[in-house]
Write a structure and sequence with these properties.
13 strands; 27% strand; Dihydrofolate Reductase, subunit A; alpha/beta; single chain
Length: 272
C-alpha cells in the first residue's frame, strides 16, 4: 500500500461530527488533529488509550476485538498508530491478537515519516512475568523494535526483532496477579528511548493500571451497535475507582451507526 493510497483511503472514509460542531469530515481531516507529540510533557510520554466496545461494554467477541468495529474504526485505528512514537499493549492482548510488525504496509510507514516520526513505531509490551512466546509474529519481524516492561529477571530467547527490557521490582497485586508500577517505567521510556507519545491498545488489566496511576491523557472509544452478552472482558478489570474517574468529551463522530468518541482525562493533565 503506497502512501498515496493511505491518504486516499482517509479521504474516502467520511464521518459525521455530532459534537462539538456538526459537520461532515474525512478521516484525513480527523487524523490531522492528532497532535500527541506536541502535548507531551518533559517527564513522561503523552498516552492515549484506543479501545472498541459493544453497547454492553464488551471489548472482544470470541476472545478477539477484530469483529466489533467497522471500516471507519479500522481506519481510525491505523491513523492513531501513524501519529505516536510507540504502540503499547499488554502481553495477553499481544498473544491473543497475534501482534506482528506494527507498520507492515509501506504506505503507513511513509505516512509516519511524513509527520516526522520513525517509519516503524516502537512496540511496548507490558508483561510482569515475561509471558511471551518467542514465535509471536511481533518478535519474528527483524524490522521491529520492542521494549518489554517487566518485573522478571529473565530474558526471551534470541529472536529476529530487537528486544530491550525495562525492569521494575515494585510490583503490586491486582486480582491475585502481579502488576507493574508503571509511572517510573514510562518516565524511563521518555528518558532512555525518547518516547514522546504512546497509543495503548489494552487489555483491561493494563488499562486499569494506567488509569489508576493517572497516566492516561486521552481515551479514544469506538462504540459498535452490537450487544454481545456473555462474559467477555470489559474496558477495565480491577478494583473500583473511588471516586469514579471523570472524562471530558472532546469530539463525537458517527459513521454507519458506529460512534467514535475522544475524551480527555483532566487528572492525567497534571502529568504525574
Amino acid at each position: 500500500m503506497p502512501a498515496s493510497e493511505v491518504v486516499e483511503i482517509r479521504r474516502l472514509v467520511k464521518l459525521r461530527r455530532l459534537h462539538p460542531d456538526p459537520a461532515e469530515l474525512a478521516l484525513e481531516d480527523v487524523a490531522g488533529t492528532l497532535d500527541f507529540n506536541e502535548r507531551a510533557p518533559e517527564s513522561r510520554p503523552y498516552l492515549v488509550l484506543n479501545m472498541v466496545e459493544t453497547l454492553d461494554g464488551r471489548i472482544s467477541l470470541g476472545g478477539r476485538s477484530g469483529g466489533i468495529g467497522n471500516e471507519a474504526d479500522r481506519a481510525l485505528f491505523h491513523a492513531l498508530r501513524t501519529r505516536a512514537d510507540a504502540v503499547m499493549a499488554g502481553a495477553g492482548t499481544v498473544r491473543t491478537e497475534r501482534y506482528g510488525r506494527l507498520a507492515r504496509a509501506p504506505g503507513r510507514r511513509a505516512a509516519r515519516e511524513a509527520v516526522g516520526l520513525a517509519a516503524d513505531p516502537l512496540a511496548v509490551v507490558v508483561s510482569a512475568r515475561l509471558d511471551l512466546p518467542a514465535d509471536l509474529p511481533l518478535l519474528q519481524a527483524p524490522e521491529q523494535r520492542v521494549v518489554v516492561l517487566t518485573a522478571s529477571e529473565s530474558s526471551l530467547p534470541e529472536v529476529p526483532a530487537r528486544v530491550d527490557y525495562l525492569r521494575d521490582e515494585a510490583t503490586r497485586a491486582v486480582a491475585g496477579r502481579p502488576a507493574l508500577t508503571l509511572a517510573p517505567l514510562l518516565r524511563r521510556l521518555r528518558a532512555e528511548h525518547s518516547v514522546r507519545s504512546i497509543v495503548c491498545e489494552g487489555g483491561p488489566r493494563l488499562n486499569e493500571g494506567l488509569l489508576r496511576e493517572g497516566l492516561v491523557d486521552e481515551l479514544f472509544l469506538s462504540l459498535a451497535p452490537k450487544v454481545a452478552g456473555g462474559d467477555e472482558p470489559t474496558l477495565v478489570t480491577g478494583p473500583a475507582f473511588d471516586p469514579a474517574l471523570e472524562l471530558e468529551l472532546v469530539w463525537l463522530l458517527e459513521q454507519g451507526n458506529h460512534l467514535f468518541a475522544r475524551y480527555r482525562l483532566g487528572k492525567a493533565a497534571q502529568y504525574p
